[in-house]
TrEMBL record:
Biological source species: Rugamonas brunnea
Pfam families per UniProt: Spermine_synth
InterPro entries: SAM-dependent_MTases_sf
Organism taxonomic ancestry: Bacteria, Pseudomonadati, Pseudomonadota, Betaproteobacteria, Burkholderiales
PANTHER family: THERMOSPERMINE SYNTHASE ACAULIS5 (PTHR43317)
Protein known as: Spermidine synthase
Alphabetic keyword roster: Polyamine biosynthesis
Keyword Protein biosynthesis: no
Region (Disordered), start-end ranges: 1-20
Length: 262
């Protein structure tokens, strides 16, 4: 998920370090600002010349639910990172309510200060809380059209929430045709553990080919869709035109997965 920072990357020395949580720090290199949690692992990135764009390829891929959910009413992000997904959904999907759940107040503070995260309003809610508490709360069940999960601590060994109980909560939060995307990264054993936990809960689970630094993005469906690739390529073209996201590569990845898992 998070490539280690290059030794030639410049550190700014800025820290957000409210006690009780890992500190949030940044580095900058070749016009890209990266977020760290007191270690070399990159937790998110923003190109300074394009602050509302999604810089990292795997983070772009987390938006592939757009192939299946065209008019989301409510998008939820578990794990704020550098706020790339939260900002993108808020800015580019004007009819959508966006919620981000983040446990570390230092991450929220640095995103507001240095990554252009807007203040909360009637469409945007960034909440400081545990993602497990959010997904287990019955008040949130059935309310989320697209759920994006990217939950890592400062060591980045694997998702910090990876149990069937957690993924059942994610499933329960989804609306009838809801979709979850999640990033699985870290030690090798984490891949099978997370995929098996998701497969126990969701109707269909598909993962795309590995992108840089061992990131694998998984898409999980509350109810398995019928995949018509001509329709998906048409939608991918519209996503590229409207949002400038490389959606054709997502469809290619889905097609390759179907071919390999027949």
């Amino acid at each position: 998920m998070k490539p280690a920072v290059s030794p030639t990357t410049a550190s700014t020395g800025l820290r957000f370090d409210q006690p009780g949580h890992p500190p949030a720090t940044i580095t900058e290199f070749q016009g890209v600002r990266s977020l760290h949690l007191g270690t070399s692992w990159v937790q998110g990135a923003m190109r300074l010349s394009r602050p509302d764009a999604i810089e990292l390829e795997y983070v772009q891929m987390m938006m592939m639910w757009l192939l299946f959910v065209q008019r989301p009413r409510h998008v939820v992000q578990l794990g704020l990172g550098s706020a790339a997904l939260t900002k993108f959904c808020y800015r580019r999907l004007p009819g959508t309510r966006v919620t981000a759940i983040e446990l570390n107040p230092n991450v929220i503070a640095i995103c507001r200060s240095l990554f252009g995260l807007p203040d909360n309003d009637d469409r945007l809610q960034v909440r400081e809380m545990n993602a497990l508490d959010f997904v287990l709360d019955p008040a949130n069940h059935g309310t989320v059209d697209a759920l994006q999960v990217d939950l890592y601590d400062e060591e980045a060994r694997g998702p910090v929430l990876d149990t069937p109980e957690f993924y059942q909560g994610c499933y329960d939060c989804l609306s009838e045709d809801g979709v979850m995307t999640t990033n699985v990264f870290g030690e090798f054993s984490n891949y099978d553990k997370n995929l098996l936990a998701m497969e126990q809960v969701f109707d269909a689970v598909v993962w795309l080919p590995e992108v840089h630094d061992a990131n694998i993005v998984v898409i999980a469906f509350k109810h398995a869709p019928v995949l018509d690739f001509s329709v998906l390529y048409e939608r991918a073209g519209a996503i590229k035109k409207e949002l400038n996201l490389p959606a054709k590569s997502w469809v290619n990845g889905l097609k390759a997965w179907m071919r390999d898992h027949q």
